[in-house]
């Protein structure tokens, strides 16, 4: 079993835990402000294993993610000087500068697109706070963007349900490496 197969098995075990919704909420909150792993890694297997609860899981993920985004906004607004060295150390400085530039041009729409896309959302929450963009449009765009993404993931995997699991297990290594390559390309494009 490869790297992604091992991780997939681990996440499947976590998603079956009785406290999995709490872990999902905590992961969603943390990812929106400081943690590097997206909540989709738990949302997807939880939705696939328990299709009847997929929309509940998407709601937990969306609300916790938006709350985490509010924390990210607060970090950018109140403590940017303290976190800027961390942004530099983890290699997000180019993405942060790109986010600032995009905010100056597109504002609300940047948050909405960042909330839906695989671009690190935390970069945009911190940049939004640092630039003091309007609070309520920020929250609304976060709800729409994050909600659209997480309900789409949960809905598709609930629709596929347990019959999708063998296919996913068979192709998880390929999917994982393609995802890594796409993320590298996105980071490369953001740093131009």
Automatic annotation (TrEMBL):
InterPro entries per the UniProt record, alphabetical: DedA_domain (IPR051311), VTT_dom (IPR032816)
Keywords carried by this UniProt record: Membrane, Transmembrane, Transmembrane helix
Location of the VTT domain: 38-155
A Pfam family: VTT_dom
Keyword Transmembrane helix: yes
Transmembrane segments: 20-37, 57-80, 100-121, 133-159, 171-190
Keyword Nuclease: no
Protein name: YqaA family protein
Organism this protein belongs to: Spiribacter pallidus
Lineage: Bacteria, Pseudomonadati, Pseudomonadota, Gammaproteobacteria, Chromatiales
């Amino acid at each position: 079993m490869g790297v992604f197969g091992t991780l997939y098995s681990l996440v499947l075990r976590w998603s079956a835990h009785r406290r999995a919704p709490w872990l999902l909420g905590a992961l969603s909150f943390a990812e929106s402000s400081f943690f590097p792993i997206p909540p989709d890694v738990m949302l997807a297997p939880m939705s696939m294993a328990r299709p009847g609860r997929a929309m509940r899981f998407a709601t937990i993920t969306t609300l916790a993610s938006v709350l985490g985004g509010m924390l990210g906004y607060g970090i950018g607004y109140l403590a940017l000087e303290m976190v800027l060295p961390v942004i530099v150390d983890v290699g997000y400085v180019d993405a942060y500068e790109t986010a600032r530039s995009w905010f100056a041009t597109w504002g609300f729409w940047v948050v909405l697109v960042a909330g839906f896309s695989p671009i690190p959302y935390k970069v945009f929450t911190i940049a939004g706070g640092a630039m003091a963009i309007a609070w309520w449009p920020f929250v609304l765009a976060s709800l729409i963007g994050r909600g659209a993404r997480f309900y789409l993931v949960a809905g598709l995997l609930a629709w596929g349900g347990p019959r999708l699991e063998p296919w996913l297990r068979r192709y998880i290594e390929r999917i994982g490496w393609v995802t890594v390559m796409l993320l590298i390309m996105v980071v490369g494009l953001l740093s131009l």
